[in-house]
């Protein structure tokens, strides 16, 4: 009787999203008598929410074995699918594939149910991590259809959202893809979906906005997701949100806050999600690079690379600061030559490739990078991408001696960056405009732009950029 009372309290706490309280109550009940598989699975879900990933996986393995003993292949398969996702989050792709094979074997002889849709969704997520966009579309369409047929709102929404993400990432139909993610997000915001589906869709919405360089949208959804996390005792998802928030803060010039968020994310995500932990280290490197701490930046980039995420473009910028632009150019060329990078990811690398190429007097490579940026900005005309393309074009036009056109493009880039509150990028555009004015013989105009850039860099705390701007002012004086 005592066990049933504790179990009831545990399930009540879980229903209120009081995950830590529920986990401890489930553990107390399990100490009195071994839990049934459905309760083991509920306890595992609580462990997942409070960041106890290895506890979560051990509990789900127990639940899987108990469901098999009870000859319940459907529930065993559903647990196997969750275990595959957990192993995938930790970068253990072989184990993830093995659990998906178990789920497939268990579900093949069974009539169609929601579990078949969750299997398709898991296969889509695995294909997405490998850049197989056509496979993602195939599986997400099936997941949504099965979710709709069996009244599983979470499955339908997640299938719809991941389908949209694949369309954006592959560049096939970004507008339709964004609309699909937005449609799924409506269900999350309205409270129609379960906790895990809600959290995942928030993350997808932030991710798609960041991919499209819509930093206003990404900022809005990051804050919304953070407020949602704050209402619950959640450990893992805040770390994922922190990665995006750190990137936004860096672009807006709040480097100290950005470093704090990125550092916190590396701690929160260490045992929760390997890919996002790697992204947190890469973002930490980007922030430290701007702050002038080159050694610490390179260490963060090294950790990101060891976890399987490319450390570029930040590492290339660090190589340039070390006096090795040829190595930076080689690294960027190798990354951009790979077939697994979509246009939006390329747009993050191309500005650095362009800048490095110009420093090496490689005008052909710089011009090709600027042309590609213009094409991507035409396909995805967010203000940030258009401004990035304009800044790239201005730098190449300056090198070609087409100064009036360069000034127009740089001024347009500055206006766009300032309009969306990207302080650091706006300062870079001011600095570029100052160099163009100087080449035109407009010394007073050059000094105004360079002084503005220096003031912005100093306010931001961008040490290396401020030093360069001071040098420009002194030289032009």
Automatic annotation (TrEMBL):
Superkingdom in the source lineage: Bacteria
SUPFAM superfamilies: TPR-like (SSF48452)
Gene3D superfamilies, alphabetized: Tetratricopeptide repeat domain
InterPro entries reported for this sequence: TPR-like_helical_dom_sf, TPR_rpt
PROSITE patterns linked: TPR
Residues in TPR repeats: 278-311
Keywords tagged on the record: TPR repeat
Protein name according to UniProt: Uncharacterized protein
